[in-house]
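quick one before i forget lol
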Amino acid sequence: MSDSDILAANVCGVEQAERYARLQSALDGAYFEWVLRSFQKRGSHLLDVGCGNGTLLRAARQLGFAAEGFDPSPWAQEQGFRVYPKWSDVPGKSYQVVTCLGTLEHVPHPLEFVADLATRLSPGGIAYFTVPNYGGLESLCIPERLRSQDKPYHCNFFRARDLTLVADRLGLRHRVRSYGLPGLWSLWRKHRLERPAAERSRHDPSGRMPSWKHRVAVRAYYWSGLVLGSKLEMTLYA
């Protein structure tokens, strides 16, 4: 698949917006809230790369961040936030926090992309990435579960050492960590996508605040995957 085909697939239509709405829940809000709280001391200006339907941006706004996004999909421009449709329009050295969750596996040249993203950080800023873990237990046992066949396609299949290599080549201080109970995300994804439409309409993540139960569940899921977890996180420090 050519670079142009990959980039075209990343400009998702309304059918992908509906798919994200089916997948997301108050658990996503609880996770975003938890992650963002750890970054508050860095500053208040935040950019979410691949912001989609704005669930992370809403959590950031509720925590007091001045939140903006980047996403080439037309429906991402309609979420009530400032969202850049072109990467070249995103200002450099402007953000104390840049988040990039579930996006790096979709870009054709990840090393160059991370290097360019780092130029958007202000001095002392932090960039946070998450990707599927192709060195995790689930991938080792059932690799096809992590190989997305739906748009936007996965074109990178990271293991922890791959992310470490990216950071090392860029000369950036970093931390790479596995997280997420193996297999649970795949089961949850299947459950969410197979729900009846009437039930899905009652669970709009944009209108639900996470409860203490969601917060406890998110922490349990995260910490249970520190060894061979289903996902990887990479934190870069400018």
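fyi The domain at 3-237 is CATH 3.40.50.150 (Rossmann fold).
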